[in-house]
Amino acid sequence: MKKIVLIFMFIVVNLMAVEIDVSSTLKDKNDTLMTQNTKVFGHRLFNGSFSHNKQYRYNPNYLINIGDMVNVKLWGAFDFNASIPVDSQGNIFLPKVGTVHLEGVRNDKLSQLLQQKIKKVFKKNVYVYADLGNYQPVSVFVTGAVNKPGLYEGLSSDSIVQFLDKAKGIESSSGSYRNITVLRENKPLKNFDLYTFLQNGKMDIFQFRMGDVINVQNIKNYVKVLGDVKRPYRYEMKDTSVKLKDLLNAVIPNPTATNFTVTKWNQDNEQSVTIHSIKDNDDFAIYSGEAVEFLPDHNTKSIAIKISGEHLGLHNLVVPKGTTLGEVFAQIRPSSLSDMNSFKLYRKSIAIEQKKLLDAQLNDLEAKTLTTGSMTTEEAIIRKQEAQLVLNFIQRAREVQLKGKVVINKDTNLSKIILEDQDEIYIPKKSHMVIVQGEVMLPGAQSYVEGMSFDDYINSCGGYTFRANKENVLIIKKSGQVISYDADSSFGSEYKVKPGDNILVLGEVDSKYLQVVKDITQIVYQIAVGAAVVLRY
User: Fold this and answer.
1) End-to-end Cα distance, the chain
2) What digits encode the pLDDT tens for the residues 496-536?
3) Taking phi first (over 0 means left), then psi (-120 to 50 degrees means alpha), and beta for anything else, what does residue 124 get?
4) In whole angstroms, what is the distance from residue 456 CA to residue 461 CA?
């Protein structure tokens, strides 16, 4: 009985280990999404780059303190060279000269003071050079809206950015970058605004002392900026409102931005949106809590069209907005090699929509993969291995660039298709090649031979691989039309291959989970059609 209980506990522990591994992957993904959705201006400042560096730069206004190391060199009638610490009473001791009080002396007055003291003993022929060899080590408290409050060690010459970086930076959701106070003996001593450093690279030189406190206040006023700008972040405001011209200096709008919308909410949680022109609105007031989106809202009078492939004449045209495909197609001068009956249209807006649909399917597949449970230890191990394969497939699928192909059917009235900006019309060459891709032994291009059957082309490529899905073969014709063909079917006539055909043999998805098989097959099909690429699982 005891042995059975131990075996049961072992199985439970293994199952929990597998689930924890998958759950942690999902948690990391959610944390990343959360960070992306709450980016604030300056969020990249604190990444550990400052925390491990010490600052020994010369500061003429630095006040010498207890614990500082002073390098002193005397030469002439009397030679002496040493590094001397400032003792607990603020003094250093020089042979034949005695004690010299240095606490509170400005750094740029150090050599001058020592020279005066030495001349009281040596009237002439003794010269001195002195500088600070090492600044005083200090411990500074960092508190308030930081990610890791605590007591941190550094040098008195270190900047406030270095101490904040040691505290893992300012808390993104509530911390202020513009209202940071240094307290000494419980009294405010200096305020810092990091926007001056972020925007202009200027940093106030400040001398920390043992026991100083850096207190990061909570953010009070902010505005969220989106759209056609170089810095789309959440910005902190010093007051409850900011003028548009001041906001523009911070966000740096792109040259294409012409308008902006302002979204605000009232106390009844009702949303209102207004749109304004950037021009002549420099003094427009934007209030805390509002969201501003900059838009490239142009009144386009003409559009750019690209004509690629085999033809004579221009490859780029600028035509009036509203021009039809038929009007442009009539201007194309074909060459003797042009296959005008098989031209293709590629549209950027279609490619964007295809990518959105593909990303949504990949996100759904990823969620299913990471959240599917297991009933036994053996199943859990298999499930973990399969999950990694699916995640690798998803990563490769995200990198595929879809073309936005628009299939022009044979009887389409081209005068009804209105062209869009950046449309591309592709004129293929007359081809007597047949391309075979995917799950065949030797994928490649073959010459078209009239009378060769579908199976002949497959066999000339070495036949199918063991992964081939013979029931799901895609044939993409020169016009872009897609035909799904079942090579194993005993019903119906065999497909007659045409010159210019692209045969894509898809692979089998090896999984015991039917839903995963269905989802991956659909994604592979979509990529094969949208990008003419066979993505292997």
Assistant:
1) 45
2) 888 888 888 877 766 555 555 566 666 766 666 665 555 45
3) beta
4) 9
- Position 305: which residue type? I
Q: In whole angstroms, what is the distance from residue 520 CA to residue 365 CA?
A: 8
Q: At what angle do helices 514-531 and 348-371 cross, to 10 degrees?
A: 160
CB-CB neighbours of 66 under 10 Å:
16
Q: How far apart are CA 370 and CA 384, in angstroms?
A: 9
Contact at 8 Å (CB) between 143 and 168? no
**d(Cα 219, Cα 164) in Å, to the nearest integer?**
16
Judge residue 377's burial from the number of C-beta atoms within 10 Å of its C-beta, 0-12 exposed, 13-18 middle, 19 or more buried.
middle
**Which superfamily is assigned to 137-218 in CATH?**
Outer membrane lipoprotein wza domain like (3.10.560.10)
Buried b (16+ CB within 10 A) or exposed e, 300-330: eeebebebebbbeeeeebebeeebbbeebbe
Q: Is the pTM of this model over 0.85?
A: no
SS (H, E, C) 22-59: HHHHHHHHHHHHHHHHCCECCCCCCCCCCCCCCCCCCC
pLDDT digits (tens, 9 = 90+) for 372-397: 666 677 767 767 777 787 788 788 87
Residue ranges per domain, the chain? 69-134, 137-218, 221-295, 431-531
Instruction: Report the pLDDT value the prediction gives residue 521, as an integer from 0 to 100.
Output: 66
Q: How far apart are CA 475 and CA 497, in angstroms?
A: 9
Q: Classify domain 431-531 by CATH number.
A: 3.10.560.10
Q: How far apart are CA 492 and CA 497, in angstroms?
A: 15
From the list 314, 306, 322, 327, the residue with the least C-alpha distance to 424 is 306
